[in-house]
Amino acid sequence: MQLADLRIFTEPQQGATYDHLLAIARRAEDLGFGAFFRSDHYLKMGDVSGLPGPTDAWITLAGLARDTNTIRLGTLVTAGTFRMPGPLAISVAGVDQMSNGRVELGLGAGWYEAEHTAYGIPFPSLGDRFDSLEDQMAVIHGLWNTPDGETFTYDGAVWGVTDSPALPKPVQAGGPPIIVGGGGKVRTPRLAARYAAEFNMGFAPVERFTEQLATVRAACEANDRDPDSLIYSIALVACVGGDEAEIERRAAAIHREPAELREHGVAGSPDEAAATIRRYVDAGADRVYLQILDLGDLDHLDLIAGEVASRLS
User: Residue 241's beta-bridge partner residues?
Assistant: First the structure.
């Protein structure tokens, strides 16, 4: 695995300005990480203040599209409850144009009920959210893949479009890569097989990751798709230090314990972190998203790029 296969993943709803995100995106770009991703949430989680408050994911990515040059940009993941599929397809295509083809769309059903309540967003049942997500995937994929001069019509259970000119067109042929993720046994693998360029699983032990990849690969075969045409990825919190004192300091900064992070994340010394990543690569991961929770600690990225990635080459 190369440094370009490691991606930086942030959680700005925990408390970050655009300038914080720009600083870490630029450092990730300068160091050679493959992408900068952010969550799409409107409410903090856990015992943090959340100040200065949330930023909108796609407004942020539009800014980063102009303020960075080469690094890929995306969401893990946009909640389908936040946006109608037609306008979302327009927004993402626009950011793809602004970035000259560097955008990726992670899209899911949404899960965090409290943020919906806090900002007046409807939160249907899980089944209804997945019905909506299936239509959203079909609409977005259809709009991006309709040839110039033709129109697109889709009549779904929740969402539909009629005689859409399917504009604007993204820079990337066929549209930005769509990322589908999660641990569902039936609908999630089916959606990944039909629409995704990448399947992602977050914060799962190696055994569970291996099990879900087998389920997704089986869904691809059932849909007459080559399972190897999908990229498989894992997201894990990162907490790496040059010595134990630095590991403890970084863990304390994100209100976690070193032992817990070693068990569930990419944590510890560079040797430990590299060994963890290798276990997921051996289990089938093509990419690893490193969740960076202390956005002010840019030296953390330097250490991972310089000491962990070199142990993976």
Answer: none
DSSP 123: -
Q: Report all structural domains of the chain as residue ranges with CATH numbers, in order of start.
A: 4-298 (3.20.20.30)
The radius of gyration computed from the CA coordinates of the chain, to the nearest angstrom, equals 19
pLDDT digits (tens, 9 = 90+) for 21-37: 999 999 999 999 999 99
DSSP 212: H
- Sequence-ordered strand ranges (E) for the chain: 6-10, 35-38, 72-75, 78-79, 103-108, 152-155, 160-164, 178-181, 198-202, 231-240, 266-268, 287-292
The CA distances from residue 75 to 33, 221, 252, 271, 312, in Å, are: 16, 27, 26, 29, 25
pTM, 2 dp:
0.97
